[in-house]
Amino acid sequence: MIPIRHILFLVSGVSSFIIFYMGLVNYLTAVEADTGMILLIFATVVASGTLLSTVYISKSITIPIEKLAQNMTEFSKTNKIRDKKPINTNIKEIYELNENFESMGQKVEDTIFVQKEYVEKLKEIDRKKAEFSSMVSHELKTPLVPILGYVQMLQKQELMGELNKQQLDAVDEIYLSALKLQRLVGDILTTQKLELGKLEFNQENTDITKLLNSIIKDFIPVISQKNIHLVKDNTENIIIFSDKDRINQVFSNLIKNAIDFVESEKGQITIGAKMDKEFIKFFVKDNGVGISETDQKEIFKKFYQIDTSTSKKRNGSGLGLAICKGITEGLGGKIWVESKENVGTTFYFEIPKQPIKVNSKN
User: Does any domain span residue 151?
Assistant: First the structure.
């Protein structure tokens, strides 16, 4: 872009040169020397006047316009009108333009200031709300421990006396409901800790092969009941310095989801890990119903659940994948999903191989 000042000087310079050139030609070609001299002097005066008027116009118009343009550019970067350069001009239109800009800029600056205050207040409200939820969840978790303990004692009839079938079924139902409530409270507590940045991580050297074998062993009762396959795809000997319990938690949440969405007797779930430059890429793959593109954009949000006939049978809290996202990001990684409907789904999450700064327990 060419500045307006340069354009004015270019136009006036060309005009002055043409005027002076015409005066010089007339001087050289004039029949009478006096007439030629008068024309040359007149051309010189006009050319000089054109240049001087250009300088005046530049000071009166182009300089204020350039300052106004600089102020606008600076305002677009900082949103602050107070740091502008002062503009002095006698040109009515430029003066009014500058006044309107200052008025508009002041309103914008004040609005942004109020908006920032509003955002900070909202953050403070969210923080207090999260702390309150964490406190309530903790208070709910405390009485669950003795409830589960006494229910387990009732299930062992040699300790508390024999129960008939109807009584035993009721006790079993209480036990299952208490476990669901305990898991829900645990998920809420974990979510709140993630939001408050208080979830602690304990990094240590972890053998991935041993970790995957342990995870499969933990799920044997569940997959046996549904008659599905849970297998490992991991041929590399990988050691990672990270929190194995949190990695286990991510795997567990992803596997539980996969179990809910695969068919009995036909379902296959594959877990594994692969080296990928500076990260270890973990995955949980299934041959379930798949996830639509719309749901894939939302599933890592809190309380979001996929609306299918299969998912309606589930009793999850909708926090599992949000927790997975929070843990992987807390460990310096990321999580994502690739899926095709009626084909299957693969969840991937990456975690750095090398130690990183985390919220440590130590």
Answer: no
Domain boundary among 58, 90, 122: 90
Q: By C-alpha distance, which of 237, 224, 243, 261 is closest to 346?
A: 261
Query: Band of the pLDDT at 312, cuts 50, 70, 90?
Result: very low
**Number of domains the chain is built from:** 2
Q: In the numeric block, which tokens belong to residue 178? A: 């208490």
Q: In 3D, which of 288, 320, 294 has the Cα closest to residue 307?
A: 294
Task: Give the C-alpha distances (Å, rounded to integers) separating 113 from 25, 72, 107, 108.
Answer: 66, 19, 10, 9
Question: What confidence tens digit (pLDDT) does each residue in 105-159 have?
Answer: 888 888 888 888 888 988 888 777 777 776 776 777 788 888 888 888 888 877 7
Domain boundary among 90, 117, 147: 90
Distance CA 131, CA 149 (A): 28
> Alpha-carbon distance 22 to 327, whole Å?
83
Which range of residues forms the domain containing residue 333? Answer: 204-352
Token pair of 166, please?
């109807």
The Cα–Cα gap between 74 and 109 comes to: 13
Give me the sign of the Cα torsion angle 27, 32, 35, 41: positive
Q: Are residues 84 and 221 in the same domain?
A: no
